[in-house]
Amino acid sequence: MSLFGPELETINKVHDESRQGESFAQEEGKRDLPAARRFYIETYGCQMNFSDTEIVASILSSEGFVPTPDFREADLVLINTCSIRENAEQKVRGRLTEFRSIKKRNPEAIVGVLGCMAERLKSKFLEEEKIVDIVVGPDAYRDLGKLITVADEGQKAVNVLLSREETYADINPVRLNSNGVSAFISIMRGCNNMCSFCVVPFTRGRERSRDPHSIIAEAKQLFNEGYREVTLLGQNVDSYLWRNEEGESINFAQLLVLVAQVDPKLRVRFSTSHPKDITDEVLYAMLKYPNICKYIHLPLQSGSSAVLNRMNRTYDREWYKMKVDRIRELIPDCGISTDIITGFCGETEDDHEQTLSMMDYVRYDLAYMFKYSERPGTFAERNFEDDVPDEVKSRRLEEIVELQNKHQFENNRKEVGREYEVLIEGYSKRSKDHLYGRNPQNKVIVFPKEQFEKGDYVKVRVTGYTSATLIGVSTSN
Ligand code: SAH
Ligand code: SF4
Ligand code: F3S
């Protein structure tokens, strides 16, 4: 018996940087309420953190706050932080220095730090950064109102308790900086994997899945508001599993189908898949429902089995190749992207060569590439030496980036002449006579505007390319 009865078809045959430091620049809506206090929020890190900011905005609006796009005008200045690499934390520190002027102008203003860095540093933040009044971890946002009240009384306030249950399922996110076409939906929180380099399990706590009813209700609401694309978010979406009190369960493939069934005109994307967990059931769902986009973000981290083992990724080179082969066998036109860390503890030239050769094997459509950054408290920090010199990390990273550019350029060259259904997201940055959107494989295509509008689906034939973008013309009438 399925939790969702006949709505859920059986498909059981076989089987989160680009937006660093974005501020909330939504129009201040309620100018007729002069007494309302104003908040400003700035977000760093992964899509899940941006999604959390939308939850925070919702909680604050129910506390009577209205948004402002200018921190100088705000009574409450918040920064939602990331700890994934040291430079992510440095950016936040730099920003807090810039925020010092706030209190000179408005001594009543409150400065708060949210998110992963708040969780990692806890009350130490208050000692290290004097301008900070409140420190709030990712599972404590419901407590914001109380913490602000404490700060109003002139005291410092901290809540960094992690939860085993919190999913903010009942909170209706306020969509910030939205293009009105695509939105993120968090389907789970936390992470139970213990990749040895990664701080996320410490900052986000145990993995928990959100009630599917609330996920589907959110997708329906977005569709009714005119959105045409949702991205289901989790650190490891393939381990999504929700059980009700009767013991009935919904796994990720089933959830994907339920969201795809909201409307054929609603595109569904998801991120991030873990190579150890992605199943054939998910691939079959992608094949069966044309509105589930043929695109998988499949972080490799390293092409060397020895390094993967030290990273505790729980797959090896051969397993990863097998997963890529399976994706290509079932969905030959699937876009595949990845994350790569270079210069992890003990990485040799040979290990590095294996990463390059894996890149040659997969020919990724997109890659996020990082130098290893040691994070306090992780298994790697406690047990391995960060022994690859920085100049070697930099040189290896350069080689990886160069190879990736070459692959993207070559992959895009092959796209010329192909036709795709593109969902229009807005005007091209360069010209108001051009629109841009994405094909199902997540590639950005720019094409002449003609009579089309944001949110339309349009057939576009590819006529040109760069390594980052496709250029095309519409073939729809
Ligand atoms: N849950 C996702 C990744 C989340 S973090 C997954 O498992 O794939 C996003 C990316 O940041 C990771 O994939 C990894 O490539 C990178 N990353 C994480 N910790 C890092 C560290 N200590 N140094 C450098 N890059 C890191
Ligand atoms: Fe970090 Fe690994 Fe969890 Fe991803 S799966 S968030 S890399 S511990
Ligand atoms: Fe995301 Fe950074 Fe936290 S990547 S989960 S905001 S450490």
| Number of DSSP-assigned strands | 22
The CATH architecture assignment of the largest domain turns out to be Alpha-Beta Horseshoe
| CATH-derived topology of the largest domain | pyruvate-formate lyase- activating enzyme
Within CATH, the superfamily of the largest domain carries the name tm_1862 like domain
Q: Which structural category do the helix and sheet elements fall into?
A: alpha/beta
Q: Could you give a short account of the major beta sheet?
A: 7 strands, mixed
Q: Your description of this structure?
A:
The chain has 477 residues and is α/β, with parallel strands linked by helices. It folds into three domains: 17-159, Rossmann fold; 182-413, Alpha-Beta Horseshoe (pyruvate-formate lyase- activating enzyme), CATH 3.80.30; 419-474, OB fold (Dihydrolipoamide Acetyltransferase, E2P) (Beta Barrel). Helices cover 32% and strands 22% of the residues. It contains 15 helices and 22 strands. The longest helix has 24 residues, at 390-413. The radius of gyration is 23 Å and the shape is globular. The two termini are 45 Å apart. Iron/sulfur cluster is lined by residues 191, 193, 195, 198, 200-201, 235-236, 274.
Task: List its traits.
single chain, 477 residues, alpha/beta, pyruvate-formate lyase- activating enzyme, OB fold (Dihydrolipoamide Acetyltransferase, E2P), seven-stranded mixed sheet, 32% helix, globular, binds S-adenosyl-L-homocysteine, binds iron/sulfur cluster, binds FE3-S4 cluster
